[in-house]
Amino acid sequence: MTTEMDTITSQRKMLSEAGYAEPAINYFIDKKYMGHLQDASQISEKIGSCGDIMKIYLKVNDQDIIEDIRYEITGCAGAISAAMAVVDLVKGQSLDQALTINDGDVFKRLENIPEKKHHCIQLAVKTMHRGVLEYRAGRAH
Known about the structure:
Elements: H1 4-18, H2 22-30, E1 42-47, E2 53-60, E3 66-74, H3 77-90, H4 95-100, H5 103-110, H6 118-139
Antiparallel strand pairs: 1-2, 2-3
Helix pairs in contact: 1-2, 2-3, 3-5, 3-6
């Protein structure tokens, strides 16, 4: 009988062999920022070139600080790990600071993912940027 630990060990081994660094693997396994926020200030969605879908939930306070952030993702390990890394980079930051986050920042946080998965980082960053910009546009009315 396979236990949950066996499954996680197997996933870790497979991801490592595929070229994912330990931080990226941990983001994928833990998925600590997956799900939705009931009281989100903004919900935005983006579909990647590969068909992965990301929905972002932002909770922004009245000082324009991102208090909480979650992603819902239908996608691969690269998409999930990249989105989880984005959350660590922007949670508690101002909207202006969040807009300065780029693909390189996320890649550094992940340490490594396979080259053919770099578009997942772009999708996670673009989804977050879209959420911030749509939130601002909604408040401008």
